[in-house]
Amino acid sequence: MKKIAIIGAGVSGLAAATVVERANRAGGDVQFTLFERSDRLGGVMVTERIDDCLVEAGPDSFLSEKTYGADFCKTFGLGDQIIGSNDDERKTYIVVNNRMIPIPDGLMFMVPTKILPTITTRLFTWGTKIKMGLEIFSRPPGDNGDETVGDLVRRHYGQEVVERLADPLLSGVYGGDADNLSVRAVLPRFAEMERNYGSLSRGMLVARRKMAQMTKKMGPNYKPRPLFSSLKDGMQQVVDAVAELLPPDRLRLNAEVKSVGRDAGGWTLTVDGQSQRFDGIVVATPAHAAARLLGSMNATLSEDLGGVPYSSSVTVALIYDRASLAHMPPGFGFLVPKTENRRIRALTFVHNKFPHRAPADKGIIRVFLGGTADEGVLQLDDAEILRTVYRELRELLKLEAKPRVERVYRWNKSMAQYSPGHIERVARIKRCVAEMPGLSLAGNAYQGIGVPDCIASGLAAANSLLEAFGIHPPNGTASTGKS
């Protein structure tokens, strides 16, 4: 029997474990052991039911267009549990000089596709609006190398769009900033548009027309997918479903892998002072942890893994009486540019985005702090974080009421940053892994940071080991093309 060790029980490691377990149940001569240094499965996917509300400590949803997230949930019978965001109420604001300014209609990330909303918005000055209008005449550039998102946006639309739009949007997704994230790794579609059309606005208009034609072909009853999807009982619902599939005796919690060794016979893991032998391993930890584990075997691999930057964050969940929030603006929430000199980076009105998360008489606000621009926030104690949040909520939203419940969640070095050179780094990592039979890597450090990307990474990592062992993956666990 082939034995596979999976190191790390975040969603990537759990996805890998499901592949091996289903292969075993389908008659494959294979078995896994999952090692997790904490006392729970799921990593950052943590859902709590508090005061009749569902509170997400980590991600509250995933992008609906990445359908392999929903597909994975469906393999556990959760298809009827998948819900969409309340897009009828979808409106996002940018804070500028302490004012909530809605992102104008027709703005696709930072690319304007409608003239009137771009002209009338208060988000940009007239100089920026003129530059945005003239961008349509841009020509395809020469080779700009692996430039940052900030460089791309600055060339096309100017510094104000970087500061007020690109940077806060990327901070909300990556916890990073536009001048440290690679266009090719983070926004490959935009890099391709620039190559093909020169103008991002022209490229996006072409894409919109194609999408409109496709929608028309779907017929009058076609309803587009919501922007975000989640699960009725929270994101941890899929973690719990995976846990029900996996044999409890194959799960090792509070078990930190101290070292990894390799010889002609396979792999040796040292856990709790004891050595255990395996034919293959899936390392589904953050890249910096993988670098420590694999450093003694391949210095180049360790250097590249250790070179992946990470950001840290703090999430504060607050439950209020709904009457206290009656004066809040409609919509999903707001983003705060760094130029506002605040610690709050973003805020979500959860009861608007996913109304079922709270009963009619209560509301949930999630506040996000940290990121690469404010790593120091993790050094503050909970009381200081809460004082900061309450002060800034008073200043931004005139919110004086005290919440019924408050929770602070810390995520240290949890979000990989795809800096310039990331694609080349990942290519080098893959070459090194290919030279070490029986090794697969999974997680958000390689080809996507969202929940669906992490799931796809875990599936692909386990499938590659099974294929190397001559074991055919069972139906429903095929690789999505991610790795």
Architecture overview:
It is a single chain. The protein is of the alpha+beta class. It has helices spanning 11-25, 68-74, 115-120, 126-134, 149-157, 159-174, 183-186, 188-197, 200-217, 236-245, 287-294, 299-306, 350-353, 382-397, 422-434, 451-468; strands at 2-7, 30-35, 47-50, 53-56, 62-63, 82-84, 92-96, 99-102, 107-108, 111-112, 228-231, 251-252, 257-263, 266-271, 274-278, 280-283, 310-321, 333-335, 344-349, 362-370, 405-416, 439-441. It folds into three domains: 2-43 and 235-308 and 419-468, FAD/NAD(P)-binding domain (3-Layer(bba) Sandwich); 106-217, protoporphyrinogen ix oxidase, domain 3, CATH 1.10.3110.10; 310-416, Polyamine Oxidase, Chain A, domain 2 (Alpha-Beta Complex). The strands form six sheets. A seven-stranded mixed β-sheet has the order 8-7-18-19-20-17-21. Strands 12-2-1-16-22 form a five-stranded parallel β-sheet, covered by helices on one side. A hairpin with a 2-residue loop joins strand 13 and strand 14. Helix 8 (188-197) packs across helix 9.
Structural class label = alpha+beta
On the 0 to 100 scale, the average pLDDT is 93
Largest sheet: 7 strands, mixed
Q: Work out the helix count.
A: 16
| Assigned CATH class of the largest domain | Alpha Beta
At CATH's second level, what is the architecture of the largest domain?
A: 3-Layer(bba) Sandwich
* Rg, Å, rounded: 23 Å
- The proportion of residues forming helix, as a percent range, comes to 25-40%
CATH topology of the largest domain: FAD/NAD(P)-binding domain
Question: What percentage of amino acids are in beta strands?
Answer: 15-25%
How many beta strands in the DSSP annotation?
A: 22
Question: How many distinct folded domains?
Answer: 3
User: How many angstroms separate the termini?
Assistant: 25 Å
Can you say what the CATH homologous superfamily of the largest domain is? FAD/NAD(P)-binding domain
Question: Uncertain runs with pLDDT below 50, 5 residues or more?
Answer: 478-483
Specify the overall morphology: globular
Give the spatial strand order of the biggest sheet. 8-7-18-19-20-17-21
